[in-house]
């Protein structure tokens, strides 16, 4: 069977400003770097077959801090990138709420109805996450794989594991920076073994 150890990137400067990142990027804060180092210590005795990250700088930087003592190369896969948000990217939540009030309401309260002409829907993200998982099981059917990705990607993964509709996207747990989720993939089933855990920091 295959176990995925999936982490959200560490806290970034834009996270602290409540600024939407999407496909844009900002640097990890000192807290983000330190939390990633603490997670690396927590996982030091776990053997990984592969390490796969979103190509975004914030995820790769997180991977480097978590895996600083490992000799495994860090692969990248675009299917792990954060949701594309078009004009929202780089704006604060308050700016987005003022400029796109109806769309902003759908994003948070009715995710299945949210659309972004210059970006992606949540279903678009879930489809590429499902594609990533299928290919991963085919290429690496057993062992442990470390995956470094983003908040919305993690949320759609939870929906896939629970066979839940898009409108359950924002159900708990909240995805903190460097939170750890473990998923067991076996005989076509996806089972959540650990959800958004921050025990390495708290």
What attributes characterize this protein structure?
single chain, 202 residues, alpha/beta, Rossmann fold, six-stranded mixed β-sheet
In a few lines, what is going on in this structure?
The chain has 7 helices and 6 strands. The chain is an alpha/beta fold and 202 residues long.
Explain how this protein is built.
The protein is globular. The chain is built from seven helices and six strands. The longest helix has 18 residues, at 122-139. With 202 residues, the chain is α/β, with parallel strands linked by helices. A six-stranded mixed sheet has the order 3-2-4-1-5-6. The chain has one domain (2-197): Phosphoglycerate mutase-like (Rossmann fold, 3-Layer(aba) Sandwich). A hairpin with a 2-residue loop joins strand 5 and strand 6. Helices cover 36% and strands 18% of the residues. The mean pLDDT is 97.
Named at the architecture level, the CATH assignment is 3-Layer(aba) Sandwich
CATH class: Alpha Beta
Major sheet: 6 strands, mixed
- Helix content range of the residues, please? 25-40%
- N/C terminus separation: 30 Å
Radius of gyration using CA atoms only = 16 Å
Main β-sheet, spatial strand arrangement: 3-2-4-1-5-6
Low-confidence stretches are: none
* Strand percent estimate: 15-25%
Count of separate DSSP helical elements: 7
Quaternary organization: single chain
- Apparent shape: globular
Q: Would you give the CATH topology?
A: Rossmann fold
Please write the string of helix (H) and strand (E) elements: EHHEHEHHHEHEE
Please, how many domains?
1
- Strand tally is 6
Average residue pLDDT = 97
